[in-house]
Amino acid sequence: MASTAVKVAGAVKDISPIYYRILSKFPQNFTFCFAYGSAVKPQIGNQKKHNMIDLIYCVDNSYRWHGANIEMNPSHYSALRFLGKGFVARFQENWGAKVYFNTLVDIKEENVTIKYGVVSQKDLVTDLLDWNHLYLAGRLHKPVEIIKQTNSSHLQNALQSNLRSAVHTALLMLPESFSEYDFYFAISNLSYAGDFRMTFGENKNKVRNIVQPQLLNFRELYRPILQQFHAYVDFPTGDAQCHQDLNPETKLHHLMQLPMVPQQRIVKFWNHGGLQQDMEDVLRAVAYDIDCTIILRQILKDLVWQSSVRQSLKGIPTAGILKSIRYSAKKIAKMF
């Protein structure tokens, strides 16, 4: 298949024209778009030709975008469209992880099936910076296909901040010595450990299946970020082990750089039933605690569990009952 060269984050990258043909069938007033999932990036045991393409449209105005899209593509929506574009936009922005998905959409001209989510730019930026849902932020910890780059410096900075946060968090999860694979596994697992769908409907080896065939893509994504971490971790070239400083003061540095919501949840957990310490005192105490890793892991699992359950429940009315059953059946079938 022929491809088109586009500039992505300073490098020239080839994007398949099929994405542009798909995007041409939607309202063009979106500010950022990326594709992800097994149909886009290789995953072990999931090389089927007809895997569903997952897309995310980031928009400035959800009300206007849904209004235009309901006119262009009414069949993509469930019966919620009859309640009007205002209801659809409010349902997107006030429930679950603030993403509105239309699933099992057949693009017959391209012989592909897609699922696409719509998110407002302000909500995407908030998730990237604060991890209030760790939903789209988690997807963007992993290599994705950027179809349309953003012109917003605010969003660009948030995307980079999200990657830095992932590195700080992964280092807190890892021992003194670890492999490059361990590092990228820890990053990918941040948004899967605790995910409701990992219990019902997802392959239990999903994280391994994502990381193993994509080590080069992970390396390319995180290389500029890791240059900012030389004082805390040694990433040698080749297959040599990585080494990090596990001094409590280094752990405190990582904890202080975590996004706001995990920090707040750590403070709430630590202060439960005891003295009400402020954030800096709590993070210092956690950094010196032998169970630092266990505490952080549980905090993130709870956060991911809550957002994944809410978003999954939200998917029932947005997809409609029949599509929800078909989508769940497809997920289960992929496990076997």
In short:
The chain is of the alpha+beta class and 336 residues long. 50% of the residues lie in helices and 15% in strands.
Work out the helicity level: 40-55%
Calculate the mean pLDDT score and round it.
87
> In whole angstroms, how far apart are the ends?
29 Å
In one word, what is the shape? globular
Number of helices: 15
Q: Report the strand count.
A: 10
Mind summarizing the main beta sheet? 5 strands, mixed
Strand order of the largest sheet: 5-6-4-3-7
Order of helices and strands: EEHEEHHEEHHEHEHHHHEEHHHHH
Low-confidence stretches: 1-12
Cα radius of gyration in angstroms: 20 Å
Percent of residues in beta strands? 15-25%
Structural class: alpha+beta
EC number: 2.7.7.41
Catalytic activity: a 1,2-diacyl-sn-glycero-3-phosphate + CTP + H(+) = a CDP-1,2-diacyl-sn-glycerol + diphosphate
Family: Belongs to the TAM41 family.
Membrane topology: Peripheral membrane protein
What does this structure look like?
The chain is of the alpha+beta class. 50% of the residues lie in helices and 15% in strands. It contains 15 helices and 10 strands. The radius of gyration is 20 Å and the shape is globular. Its cofactor is Mg(2+). Its EC number is 2.7.7.41. One of its GO terms (cellular component) is mitochondrial inner membrane.
Structure characteristics:
alpha+beta; 3-stranded antiparallel beta sheet; phospholipid metabolism; 15 helices; 5-stranded mixed beta sheet; disordered N terminus; transferase; nucleotidyltransferase; 336 residues; 10 strands
